[in-house]
């Protein structure tokens, strides 16, 4: 993950959502952008093989149970710099809609939420945010 600069949060979340069969066939749907990024690594297929072997060692564990369990500990949404920056910019114009949306979404970060999906909160960060720097004193 470090080599490909993969998004750790979304990589683990997408591992929570993808089926073992999709991984086994190295069929990574487009919606799993973080896993697709990871898939660019030359050792990805070897890693998938080891990961699937590890999953198979959990005797009596079904793929559905694994995915359900993993989605309860791997959030779909986290507050990211670009989201905060967007909310701040709108708030500076007296529009607090994104502040309120973030407040609602982050109360249930493990649950897929239509409003968060429409806002792009589980998508790849926008290109304008690539060089965004936020510090503790910002």
UniProtKB/TrEMBL annotation:
Signal peptide start-end: none
Pfam families: SelO
GO molecular function: ATP binding; metal ion binding; nucleotidyltransferase activity
Keywords attached to this entry: ATP-binding, Magnesium, Metal-binding, Nucleotide-binding, Nucleotidyltransferase, Transferase
Cofactor: Mg(2+)
Family under the similarity heading: Belongs to the SELO family.
Name of the protein: Selenoprotein O
Organism of origin: Eulacestoma nigropectus
């Amino acid at each position: 993950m470090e080599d490909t600069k993969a998004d750790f949060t979304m990589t683990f979340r997408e591992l929570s959502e993808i089926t073992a069969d999709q991984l086994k066939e190295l069929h990574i749907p487009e919606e799993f952008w973080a896993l697709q990024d990871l898939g660019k690594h030359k050792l990805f297929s070897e890693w998938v093989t080891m990961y699937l072997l590890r999953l198979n060692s959990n005797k009596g564990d079904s793929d559905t149970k694994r995915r359900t369990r993993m989605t309860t500990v791997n959030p779909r949404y986290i507050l990211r710099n670009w989201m905060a920056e967007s909310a701040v910019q709108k708030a500076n114009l007296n529009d607090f809609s994104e502040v309120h949306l973030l407040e609602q979404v982050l109360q249930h970060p493990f649950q897929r939420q239509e409003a968060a999906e429409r806002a792009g909160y589980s998508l790849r960060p926008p290109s304008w945010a690539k060089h965004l720097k936020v510090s503790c004193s910002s």
